[in-house]
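Notes from hallway chat w/ T.B., transcribed later so I don't forget. T.B. wanted the structure written out for a chain they're using in a teaching module, and asked if we could keep both sequence and structure tokens in one place. Agreed to drop them here.
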Amino acid sequence: MSVVVATHRRRRLLARLVAALEAQQLQPAEVVIVDDGSDDGTMEELEALQATARVSVVPLRLDRASGPATARNLGWRRATGDIVAFTDDDCVPQPGWLKALAAALGPDSGYDLAQGLTEPDPDRAPGRGPFARTMWVLEPDGFYATCNIAYRRRVLEELGGFDERFRRPFGEDTDLAWRAIESGSRDTFVAEAVVHHEVWPSSWPQHLRDRGRREGIVLAARLHPGIRHHFYRPYWYQGSHPRALLGALGAAVVASGPRRPAAWLTAGALAAPYVHHRLVDRPLPCRRRNLAPVIALAWLADLAEVGVLVAASARYRALLL
């Protein structure tokens, strides 16, 4: 087995990742880490790890940032293993990770790709705020995130790897898995293959900037219509989105005419589904006294995400909001 990681401007996390791979019960043939055009000394860190690590670290570099699809393609093509496991630079694979994936993809298993269980790093999860960023994959979800997945090499070769039309880190991993399955590959979920994912601090500006990556899911939906049954509705990516638009309609009612009681009541009725969603369906972790501003900021971020999806729907000619 080989491990492939794409990294970009996360030098400080690489030693932690390599240490976790050194601790694997099943040692990888090599760990190929591709520096995707970083400018923070990432390559120097990788070369230092190559010299000191107890696993074979193979550092590669792209001269300019080209996106994770391009970086991972460079990585798996350099790798030598019959099975290629992918994880991310902000992850900590647990000691039994590779062994569990190898067992799932054994020569007699009949499976061609295996997805493991991903959960927030328990040492960092306490105290996360409403806009913290992390990953949960506790059961098969149809998205096949590359923070924790393995493929038979022949599948990657037959498919040509990741589609490099995906410009940002979102959707390229989903597309690859769906192409594999649509081509006849069989997948399995391995709960024993555990990866802990970084919990990035709660930051609304960063949360807002991160919405731009969502354009990739529209391209994935255009290429693989079957993925739509994993969304909230076939044409709605998240359950918060139609509710956010109702809230925006309520705001427009108040802003567009005399602010009479009827207008305020209408606006309140239109905003109520979004508030209920954020209080009950998908509650945001925050102190009670902060609920109102946090819900308002989440609403603005949802509207921004809808805007990204509208633009991507026009670009890729596939409606998803």
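Follow-up for T.B.: Residues 2-201 form a domain with the Spore Coat Polysaccharide Biosynthesis Protein SpsA; Chain A fold (CATH 3.90.550.10). Might be a good example for the class.
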